[in-house]
Amino acid sequence: MDAEELVQLNNEKRKQLSQENKKYYEDMLIYIRTSYNTSDQEMEEILVELLDHLIEAQAEGKTAKDVFGKQPKKYANEILGELPKGVTKKHIQYFVMLVCYFLAAASITSGIFNWLGPYIFSVDSWSNTYYLGTFVLKALLDIPFAFLIMFLALQYIRWTCFKEINNKRFLFLSGLFGILAVGLFVLVALIIPDLGPKVELPFYTIILFGSALYLIGRKVSKAI
């Protein structure tokens, strides 16, 4: 089976678990899957093996804690330590996909604001002036920032595994993280001066450019 088929098998088999065992196992599943430097195939194979082991133990009246112990993160880290590490083709595809989606979202959003400008902000033109040097510099800064934010978000998700976190606290921390992330991109936009040659582009050109990047990202995602 490939990784996608193993994921589907895992989803079906998890229905056999009790509520307590399911919560324990799904925390372990999330913790392992959010390990960004491990082969998906190897990871999904070991997750199905763990699930089969737990289902068998549950039939004997045991709980997930009886099977995997009371230190699940330590156990999960031991499993991850045994899996092969390295950058795979799929990791590169994920990188390309995320870059395309990020630039597509930024371009389409910019194009929509330019389109609505005359109606909302009393702007006289549907076009906007772009400085090529500024655009390149923003991309060189924003893309690493986007991946840093994604990395921190994954670490936060892993930190919440095996913890009983109050919903209000979770929403507060998530909201704070989102505000800081948006603030970081706004800060980059404000501090970078106008650099390089400038071009005047209408809103529909920017939206079409963003749409093309989105389609490229979508094509890459289907190949993963």
Automatic annotation (TrEMBL):
Keywords: Membrane, Transmembrane, Transmembrane helix. The chain crosses the membrane at residues 94-115, 135-158, 170-193, 199-217. PANTHER family: MEMBRANE PROTEIN, MEMBRANE PROTEIN-RELATED. It holds the Pfam family DUF1129. This is DUF1129 domain-containing protein. Gene3D superfamilies: c-terminal domain of poly(a) binding protein. It comes from the Bacteria. It comes from Tetragenococcus halophilus subsp. halophilus.
